[in-house]
Write a structure and sequence with these properties.
Radius of gyration: 19 Å
Strand content: under 5%
Structural class: mainly alpha
Shape: flat
Helix content: 55-70%
Distance between the termini: 49 Å
Length: 171
């Protein structure tokens, strides 16, 4: 049997369809969140759109939410799905906010190096953060899933920030 040929156009069409389905799922979750319709059920500012352009416009905010949520105005909400456990996330949120410039500098240095492993890691982790931020409306789930892209980026940032100081990690 011959493998089917997938054109670039059909691949783009499938990606657009997937983003539209994510938007519809988000909208349905937001409309039933705690029995009342909310445009932003998670409190992160990410709005739920069922259109491709609406999803694309939300990528920067969704990526920021994936890295930094819960935000300060959410720290003391003790109702909802997370409840009192949200208070435990405050320490991590503060630490991530403090580390954000260090992570960004390390990611920029890795990108500027042009090394294939660093580019691969950035090209995997950053889109994963955007997808998680776009598709996860529950902050407790987001809190757990972000480790999949955050830990590799911390290792990458550490390696490139140390290398910038002239220290060779491997000889």
């Amino acid at each position: 049997p011959v493998a089917p040929v997938v054109s670039f156009k059909s691949g783009i069409s499938e990606a657009a369809h997937a983003l539209t389905k994510i938007g519809m799922t988000q909208r349905n979750l937001a409309s039933t969140y705690q029995g009342q319709p909310l445009p932003d059920a998670s409190g992160t500012g990410v709005r739920y759109s069922a259109t491709l352009t609406g999803q694309i416009r939300q990528i920067p905010l969704a990526t920021a939410a994936a890295f930094l949520a819960p935000f300060p105005w959410q720290w003391f909400w003790t109702t909802g799905d997370t409840g009192q456990a949200r208070l435990l996330a405050i320490g991590e949120a503060v630490m991530l906010a403090v580390l954000a410039p260090w992570l960004a500098r390390g990611a920029w240095r890795a990108l500027a190096s042009g090394e294939i492993p660093a580019l691969f890691l950035l090209g995997t982790c950053l889109p994963m953060a955007a997808i998680v931020g776009l598709s996860i409306t529950n902050l407790g789930t987001l809190f757990r899933l972000r480790l999949q892209f955050l830990l590799p980026l911390i290792v990458l940032a550490a390696a490139y920030n140390v290398r910038a100081k002239g220290v060779e990690l491997v000889r």
